[in-house]
Design a protein that fits this description.
alpha/beta; seven-stranded mixed sheet; three-stranded mixed sheet; 6 helices; 14 strands; about 25% helix; GlmU-like; Nucleotide-diphossugar_trans; transferase; Nucleotidyltransferase family protein; NTP_transferase_dom
């Protein structure tokens, strides 16, 4: 099963990217000539996604205009102008567009350069709805550019996850996942985070992870842009 629908989380305020984000939403910041949003949408297109739901809140008109001419994947806007809903709240609001089958979720402010088989394809091949509610794409500290905090998860031999509490042997959540919408049954409609669902899935033994191959890039502040562009150049050079 390969998901054909995705949720792109693009509604954040991007406060740490000021002053750039005083006049544009963070997903439209360009790295190596391409917006952060398009890095993610291009990865989804390559994975066979035909519909991407993009949520908007901060300077939404710019995001709407940017994706207006995009042919693939087809873009559906989930409008959060009235209230910022965080990661899980944004997904809950968008559920009518996402359907009843598992879907990708990606963050619009991080991206990656794959080495070998595309990571989203590998994620789909690793997905097992009978055992999993959530499958996270992960990376290690050495393969990350711009990451300034510790790790997120420890991975069991079967791929099951638990919180790493910063253990350096752990892995980082790399901003992409497959999620089954059943986890949002009876979910609240207000602002709340996906972290609560991660913890619930850990308790049920249904949170799993897959380590990506390649370079994962996050851009937290304006002075991180040169390092991100250098990482793209280096990763693309290795891929040739």
């Amino acid at each position: 099963m390969r998901p054909t629908t995705a949720m792109v989380l693009a509604a954040g305020l991007g406060k740490r990217m000021r002053p750039i984000t005083d006049t544009m939403p963070k997903p439209l910041v360009k790295i190596a000539g391409k917006t952060l949003l398009d890095w993610g949408l291009d990865s989804l297109k390559a994975a066979g996604v035909t519909k991407a739901v993009v949520n908007v809140h901060y300077l939404p008109e710019q995001l709407v205009a940017h994706v207006a001419d995009r042919k693939a994947p087809k873009i559906v806007i989930s409008d959060e102008r009235e209230a910022l809903l965080e990661s899980a709240g944004g997904i809950v609001k968008a559920l009518p567009f996402l359907g009843s089958e598992p879907f990708y979720v990606i963050n619009a402010d991080t991206f990656w350069i794959d080495s070998g088989q595309p990571s989203l394809e590998r994620l789909a091949l690793a997905w097992d709805a009978a055992r999993m509610d959530i499958l996270l794409m992960l990376t290690d500290l050495d393969s990350a550019t711009g990451h300034c905090v510790g790790t997120d998860f420890l991975v069991a031999p079967d791929g099951a996850l638990r919180r790493s509490k910063g253990d350096p042997t752990g892995l980082i959540y790399a901003g992409a996942a497959i999620i089954h919408p059943r986890i949002f049954k009876d979910a609240p409609t207000g602002s709340h985070s996906l972290n609560a669902y991660f913890d619930r899935a850990i308790a049920a033994g249904r949170l799993f992870g897959m380590k990506m191959n390649g370079r994962w890039i996050t851009v937290g502040t304006p002075d991180a842009i040169p390092a991100a562009e250098a990482a793209v150049a280096g990763a693309l050079a290795k891929a040739v």
